[in-house]
Amino acid sequence: MSDKAAAGLSPRGSIAEIEHGAAFMPKFDADGLIPAIVTDHTSGEVVMFAFMNRQALAATLQTGLAHFWSRSRNKLWRKGEESGNTLKIVEMRTDCDQDVVWLRVDIQGDGVACHTGAASCFYRSIPLHQSGDGGTILEPVEIRRSKPA
Amino acid sequence: MSDKAAAGLSPRGSIAEIEHGAAFMPKFDADGLIPAIVTDHTSGEVVMFAFMNRQALAATLQTGLAHFWSRSRNKLWRKGEESGNTLKIVEMRTDCDQDVVWLRVDIQGDGVACHTGAASCFYRSIPLHQSGDGGTILEPVEIRRSKPA
To answer: Both ends of chain A: CA-CA distance in Å?
Structure first.
């Protein structure tokens, strides 16, 4: 699949078309990437965040399974291809500027989204108002799991 | 505030320290930015997405109000400074790699997060499996509001 042609994606239009139109015309950044927010459709929690290139976005639309672009490995990556924790999309949305996508997913396999083995990548909170020289001390949070551990 | 020193932020450490440590050592990209996901703490919906630079992140931690870096206006921006729709942080988290932040917020003012006047920026869904040459046709979604319209 060439970078220019990817089924299901339209070229960018005017601001009015982007904000209020019905054509999906996603914006990719200077590196050819668009951010993707992933939430668990049962718990509602944000479970991971990654980037898609044009090919990953097109593959996601075609298969209903989340694909990303790995910047560290420089390759297309179907989430769960090794772990079995595939992300089956329940609903996908874009924002006003069409430069972000949000995936509401059903996590297959063990219901684990994070490469560390945690159910969600967001397992630490950042306390506010700790502006001392010692830095901010993160606090562990309990993740609401959609599936039993 | 210099770019190097920002209260509450520690320099990057080893992978073990980043993934399992308690020090907040956020990663900024080549442009000095970190992505920020914003969800409404009552509805649980993703309502907006923006970027912070080091200064915006430090100001957010110090005030408990969401600050971002506007790439289009090239300036620090406190969300709601014009609209009144300030984002008061209920909880803030970071991910395994500490290269994203997630803000659970209480939207002040009219409870509107999007510059278009929509309660959320994510007011259109992206249907799957529409891989024809005609592109993908977005569908409007009803946003669950945390406050009456």
So the answer is: 39
Domain residue ranges of chain A, discontinuous segments joined by +: 15-140
Chain A CB contacts of B138 below 8 Å? 21-24, 94
pTM score, two decimals? 0.93
A20-53 pLDDT, tens per residue? 999 999 999 999 999 999 999 999 999 999 999 9
**Smallest CA–CA separation between A72 and chain B, in Å?**
12
Q: Which residue has tokens 């320099």? A: B11
pLDDT, tens digit (0-9, with 9 covering 90-100), for B98-141:
999 999 999 999 999 999 999 999 999 999 988 666 789 999 99
Cβ-defined contacts of A7-11 (< 8 Å, 24+): A7/A58, A7/A61, A7/A62, A7/B131, A7/B132, A7/B133, A8/A58, A8/A61, A8/A62, A8/B130, A8/B131, A8/B132, A8/B135, A8/B136, A9/A54, A9/A57, A9/A58, A9/A61, A9/B135, A9/B136, A10/B135, A10/B136
Per-residue pLDDT tens for B28-76?
999 999 999 999 999 999 999 999 999 999 999 999 999 999 988 999 9
ipTM: 0.93
The correct CATH number of A15-140 out of 3.10.20.810, 3.30.70.1130, 3.30.1490.20, 3.40.50.10260 is 3.10.20.810
CB pair distance less than 8 Å for B136 and A37: no
For residue A37, give the H/E element and its range.
strand A34-40
Inter-chain touch A122–B132, beta carbons under 8 Å: no
Where residue B32 falls (left for φ over 0; alpha for ψ -120 to 50; beta otherwise) is left
